[in-house]
Amino acid sequence: LPLAEETGSIFAISDWILQTICRQNKAWQNSGFPPLTMAVNIAPRMFQQRELPQMVERALRQSGLDACFLELEVTESMLMSDVDASTRTLEKLNRLGVDLAIDDFGTGYSSMSALRRMPIKKLKIDRAFVNDLGSNPDDAAVAASVIALARSMNFGVIAEGVETEEQLRFLKAKGCLEGQGFLFSLPLPEAQFTSLLTRSHSPE
Question: What is the pTM of this model?
Answer without folding.
Answer: 0.91
